Amino acid sequence: MKIAIVGGGPAGLYFASYLAQFNPSFDITIFEAQDLSINAFGLGYTLQKLDSILLERLDKQFYTSLFCEQATPIITEALFKTNIEKRILPFSEGFSVTRPELIRYLSQKAQSFGVSIINKKINPQMLPELQQTFDLVVISDGINSIARQQYKQEMKTVEHQAKLKFSWFTNETEHERTEACFYAFNADEGVILLTSYPLTKHKQVVIIEMTDNCLNSAELKGKTPKQAIPYLNKLLSSNGDEFHLHSTDLPWYTFKMNTAERLYHDNLVMIGDAAYSFH
Fold this sequence. Notes:
Blueprint: E1 2-6, H1 10-22, E2 27-31, E3 44-48, H2 49-58, H3 60-65, E4 75-81, E5 86-98, H4 99-112, E6 116-118, H5 127-133, E7 136-139, H6 146-150, H7 152-155, E8 157-172, E9 180-187, E10 190-200, E11 203-211, H8 212-215, H9 225-236, E12 245-247, E13 253-260, E14 264-265, E15 268-270, E16 277-278
Parallel strand pairs: 1-2, 1-7, 2-6, 4-9, 7-15
Antiparallel strand pairs: 3-5, 4-5, 8-11, 8-12, 8-13, 9-10, 10-11, 13-16, 14-15
C-alpha cells in the first residue's frame, strides 16, 4: 500500500511512524516544504502531568527519548500578574519541548522505520494527481491546509477568525525562572496578555496576545512584533519584573478555529490541525 503524507509536522511524522510499525510493508512518503514545519506555528509545547502520563503509556520509548540530551525545567508554579497585583499558585507539574527539537526527533524516528521524507511543497492543484498516484493521501499540513482549500465544498470546511492577534517571542533572564506566567496588563491601547513557559532556567518562550483594535492603536499601531519589543518590555516590566524580549522574526498571527463536516474525500483524509484546530 502506497501512502502519501502531506506535511512533516508533529502529526504527520508521528502518524507515519505509527503506520510503519503497524505494517512494515507500507510504502510511506512524507512531502514537506523544507524547514516549513520547524518555522511554523509555535516555538514549542508544554506537557503537563496528564499529557506526560498518557504519552508515557502510549509510547514509552518516545517519551523517554524526547529529552535524552537535556531535560527542561520542571514547572510546578504559575505566576499570575496584572499592572498592580500578582499571585503565585500551584501548577500541574509539566515541562516544555521546543518545536525544532520535537521535529528533529520525530523525523529521525520516522526515517528509522523506512519512511521517506521529500522536501517538496505540495500545492492544492496537485492533490488530485497525488490521489491517483497513492492509495491513501493523509493531509497533516496544519491550520492553513491545502485540502481545506481544494475540497472546501466536498468536506464542508469552515474557518472562524477571532478578532485577536498573537506572536511568539523569547525572553532571557539573569536569574532562574521555572514558573509558567500568565499576565494581563492594561495599556493605553487595551488589554495585553502574556503567556510564557521555560525552555531553560534562563530562557522562556513568550506568547503576546491582544485584540485587533489594541494592535492598531497608539504605540503599537503599524508595528511588527520586532518593532513592538521596546514598548512591550517597558509595559511588562512595570510591576516588579524585568523583560528582555527577543524577536523570533515571526509576524502577528490571527487566531483561527477550523471545523469540517467530513474529514475525508475519496482516498484523502485530514488529521491534526488540518482537521480541527482551536488556536
